[in-house]
Write a structure and sequence with these properties.
Layout: H1 7-11, E1 19-24, H2 30-40, E2 43-46, H3 47-54, H4 62-69, H5 82-91, H6 93-117, E3 123-126, H7 130-133, E4 142-147, H8 150-161, H9 165-174, H10 178-183, E5 187-190, H11 195-223
Parallel strand pairs: 1-3, 1-4, 2-3, 4-5
Length: 224
């Protein structure tokens, strides 16, 4: 499941350094991009991974999930049954809100903790539903969208997860349209299958972000 995106999650996050919100549709390659940025020296904080950790075996969110949804949504190892929960929240918006009420405060506090402890040239928050949240625009300095053709999104997700085309399309339909995501972007990375081209784009953005981060630090020190 993608990390929830409600405003409660973003309201608690107050980055002290130059920060970027990284997002993109399912299958666009956000993980590949984030990993490469990290190799260049960026501090990457993945909201989706935080949500997975919270709902992993005996994770901090699991007692509340078991109490609210029942033990049927807990796997034998103590993790959330993601497939069953995905079916539940996609079919009933009220159930989605119930899950978000449990996860959002925890994701927000864990994301802030990670940001405070992060070491790197600048911060990158990886948030699958960043645009949908409506609040991250005020939390980060720039929004970076990873983009690719929709047919390529579907091909990639089928290869990695085995989900049906119908299920993948339903997930894509629950996200904002590609055009809306691109319109919200300050920067766009085209990930249409050519790794060399993608990494060259990231190298150029990294240099730009380093400059922005330096200027922000300098301006803040001059105000002190």
């Amino acid at each position: 499941m993608a990390a929830p995106s409600n405003a409660h999650q973003a309201n608690m996050i107050q980055p002290a350094r130059f920060s970027i919100g990284l997002t993109g549709g399912i299958g666009c390659g956000k993980t590949t991009v984030a990993d490469y940025f990290a190799s260049l020296g960026a501090a990457v904080i993945d909201a989706d991974q935080i949500a997975h950790d919270l709902t992993g075996p005996h994770g901090p969110a699991m007692p509340a999930i078991a109490a609210s949804f029942g033990i049927d949504f807990v796997l034998p190892d103590g993790a959330m049954d993601r497939a069953k929960m995905r079916d539940r929240v996609f079919s009933d918006p009220r159930e989605k809100s119930r899950l978000e009420a449990i996860l959002h405060p925890l994701i927000g506090s864990e994301t802030q903790r990670a940001a405070d402890a992060a070491v790197g040239d600048y911060l990158i928050f990886v948030v699958p539903l960043l645009i949908e949240s409506g609040r991250w625009r005020d939390m980060v300095d720039r929004i970076l969208v990873v983009d690719c053709p929709e047919n390529l999104q579907i091909e990639r997700v089928i290869r990695r997860s085995g989900l049906t085309v119908e299920r993948i399309q339903s997930i894509m339909d629950a996200q904002v349209p590609r055009a809306v995501r691109l319109a919200a972007a300050d920067d766009v990375l085209l990930n249409d299958g050519e790794s060399r081209s993608l990494f060259q784009q990231i190298d150029a953005l990294h240099a730009k972000y380093q400059k922005f981060a330096f200027e922000l630090r300098k301006n803040r020190s001059q105000r002190l």
